[in-house]
Amino acid sequence: MHYCGLDVSAKSTHVYIEDEEGRRVRRTIVTTTPEGIRGALARYQDGRLTVALEAGNQTAWIHDELRELGCKVHIVHPLKVKWIAESKKKTDRVDAQLLAHLLRIGGLPEPVHMPSRRSRELRALLGARRQLVQMRTKLMNVARGLLRQQRVQIRAKGLRTEQGWRELKNLPLSAAVREVVDAYAATVAATTAALKALDGELTRRAGVDARVARLQTIPGVGQVSAQTLVASVDRIERFANAKKLVAYSGLVPSVRASGDRVVYGRITKQGRSEIRAVWVQAAHAALAVKDGRARPLQRWCERVAHRRGKKTALVALARKLLTIAFHLLRDRTTYDPGHLRCAA
Question: Model-level pTM greater than 0.90?
Answer without folding.
Answer: no
